[in-house]
Amino acid sequence: MTRGARIVLGMILLILSCALLIWSLLPARRETRTQPISPAELQLPTPSSFVISSIL
Amino acid sequence: MNRTLIFTIIIGVILLAGCGAPAAAPPAESATESVDEAPQATKVPSGATEPALVEPTAAFPSESTPTVAAAFTPQPAFPERRRLTLEFPPRIRAGDSDVVRLTLEVDDLGNITPTAEMGGNVVTGEVIEIPNLYESHHVIAEARFDIAGMEVRPPDLVSQPLTQGTSATFYWSIRPQAAGDYRGTIWLYLRFVDRLNGEESLKTVSAQIVEVEAVNLLGLSGAVARTTGVVGSIVGTVLGFPFLEDIVKFLFKRRRQHHK
C-alpha cells in the first residue's frame, strides 16, 4: 500500500468515524407540552356534586 | 236590570271561589301526610282532627330545608393554580435511554398563562383553577406511562403526595430496543382520601398521547455507533497520519537500541 493511498483511506475512515460519533453523541431534542385542564376535571367526584347538578 | 245581573254574577263568583278553595286544599294536606306519616297522627287527639292536619304542614319545611341546604354546601377548593407540564424526547436513538418528565406544578405567576413551544409553534395554555381539598382530604398524584414495545422504568403506577404549594414530578426512563415509531399514553390521576372516614375517590386528570420515534444510522444503534466511531477515529488517525512510517521506524529503532 502506497503512502498516499494509506493517507486517503485513513482520512475517509476518520471522517466517517467522526460522523458516527457526532450522530451518536448529539443530545436529543426535547419537547415540552403544557396541557390545559379545565377546573371541572379536577373536581372531587362526590355524590353531593351530582346532587347539586341535578337540582340546578 | 243590569245591577241585578252584575250582583248575581258577583255572588256567583264568590260562591264558586268558596267551593274551589276547599277543593284545592286536600292535595296540600295529603302531601304533608305522606311526609310526616304515622308519628304525627298518633299524637293527635281523636276529637281535634282539623288542627292536627294543619300542624304537619308547618313541620314539612323545617325538615326539608336542612337537606336542601346540605346539597348546596360548597365544595372545598385548592387555593393555588396549577398546570401540567410534560417533557419528552420526540426522537431517540435506538438502544439509548432518555428521560420523560411529567410535572404538576404550582403556577407561581398567578394569572400569567403558561406557554409552551412545540416545533417552533407557540402553544398557549389556560390558567387552571384547582379545587381546594387539602383541608379535608389527602391528595395523592398518581401517574403511569403506558407504551408498547419500549422499555419503561418504572413500569407501574407511581404515586406522590400532593401538598399545598408543592409540585409533583414524575420521571420515567425509556429505552427503545429497535428503530420504529412508538406511541403511548401518560396517565395522571388524583386520588382523594377523606381525612375523616378514609373514603377514597380517583379522578383522571390527564391522558396525554406521546409519540416517540426511535432511529438508527445505517442499522447501527446509538451504542454501536459510538463504539464504531471511537475505534474508527483511532484507526483513521493512525492510518492517515503523514509521519506514521517515520514514527514506526523511530520506535523500532529505539527498541533495538534498548535490547542491545
Care to describe what's here?
The complex is a heterodimer of chains A (56) and B (260). Chain A has 56 residues and is mainly alpha-helical. Chain A has a domain at 1-26. Chain A has helices spanning 3-25, 47-55, and one strand at 31-35. The longest helix of chain A has 23 residues, at 3-25. Chain B folds into 2 domains: 2-71; 81-215, Immunoglobulins (Immunoglobulin-like, Sandwich), CATH 2.60.40.10. Chain B contains 4 helices and 12 strands.
Structural class of chain A: mainly alpha
Largest interface: A-B, 43 and 66 residues
Shape of chain B: rod-shaped
Question: How would a crystallographer describe the biggest sheet of chain B?
Answer: 5 strands, antiparallel
Instruction: Give the oligomer, counting copies of the same chain as homo and different chains as hetero.
Output: heterodimer
Strand content of chain B: 25-35%
Please give the number of β-strands of chain A.
Answer: 1
Q: Provide the succession of SSEs of chain A.
A: HEH
- Poorly predicted runs of chain A are 48-56
Provide the residue-averaged pLDDT of chain A. 75
Average pLDDT level of chain B: 71
Distance between the termini of chain A: 92 Å
User: How much helix, percentage-wise, in residues of chain A?
Assistant: 55-70%
Strand residues, percent of chain A: 5-15%
Radius of gyration of chain A, in angstroms, nearest whole number: 32 Å
